[in-house]
User: Fold this.
Amino acid sequence: MSTNNQMSKEVLIIGAGPAGLTAAYLLGMHGIKCTVLEKDRQYVGGISRTVTYKGFLFDIGGHRFFSKSKEVEDLWTSLLPNDFLERPRLSRIFYRKNFYSYPIKPLEVLLKLGIIESSLCVLSYAKAKIFSIENPRSFEDWVVNQFGRRLFNIFFKTYTEKVWGMSCSEISADWAAQRIKKLSMATLILNSLNPRLTGKSRETTIKTLIDKFRYPRKGPGMLWEACADRIAEMGGTVVMDVDVKELRFVVDTRKWHVVCKDPHKAEFTADHVISTAPIRELVTMIIEPKLSDKTIQAGHSLMYRDFLIVALITPDKVSLPDNWIYIHDPTVKVGRIQNFKAWSKEMVPDQSLCCYGMEYFCTQGDDLWEQSDESLIELAKKEIDQVGLVRAVDVIDGCVVRQEKAYPVYDFNYSTYVDIVRKDLEDKFLTLHMVGRNGMHKYNNQDHAMMTAMLTVKNILAGKRLYDVWSVNSDAEYLEQGMDDESTLQTGLRSVPSKIVS
Assistant:
């Protein structure tokens, strides 16, 4: 495709998270005009944004900047060349009034659990190795195989069921294989004895075992705000407080027409659309040509877990070095506690104070989600006192932020539903691209989301699907699958009928 044709392309991007902004930035560097539509009124960055409250900065969940992809690392550095800190990684598990390192250190676990419980854990692990579950289907089966049932019950079950609101036996093993792949009792023992044995380079390091990472001095939102500024400097546009209502592909003009909801109703046209919107919402947006009932039903069958964080401001009385603490205590609802001052001192404007993020996992409409901010702050104060970190009476102030569709749910049928939607959309539309966490219904990190955007940009520039973005693994590595050289992007809409495989 000629440079002139590339320059004339217009690309509309739904969502100003890591995937959407990465795509807009890279396309802008090639002279392609991009319009990014973001539903949030104030912040870019999606789940990787940084919220401000009375000078305090906090993340919607912590975000460690570490990737096996040099391309991703280089992009981060180019956006913030002088603003990254190198931080020591420390996260622990709080269980029965004791702190345990995470990833688990087997010798520490054996000492703190006591001789009887430790012996039972060793026997349980041995049993799991002898009588392993063939072809583990659930998260529970997968972890039991790797650690034994007793350690599963202690260090995995409670927290995981808080996150997902469902039994570990109902969660697909895909989630474990993706999030804690290569992690087993053997690798933990090796790592305890000599960390170099489990990864001598960035490419071979197991992500879960990293002991340091980079972090923007004012949180991840600092990076994505810088990215949005660069996009604007290159002639692109990031439009805030807009929510996409309709997507129409007009065959005669080979253009997408994108209509936004009231009160900021607006209409945009584009040659390509890159969507980071949740698949469940995307199948509803597309009204021309109409998707099959089977595809719409599959999209609507995908489930999500929502999230809220209660930031508590307290005097700095506790010497707590952790980035975050996993709360494996079934008597409290909080799942994880962030310590934002341990990420960067610049997250806290007054160094005599601390800011702790009490993370709660919920579902829109449930009792937790529907509570008032005042009630949630009182709950968080009570629970941070209950686990023994900070006295409730010492909490000075608090703030609540809710996040819809924070986590795509991996139930047993999710991959079937995703495949149905993906095949129909790929068959019908060659200029519609699904990227990012919710855009692909993959519980990934921001480097994975960025890599799917990077490959999509390469496809748009090439005018054909050279890369299969679905072949990016959880380490943001592209696994070459081979693509059809004739898979051109120039026609926009395929003339062949949709082929849906159930």
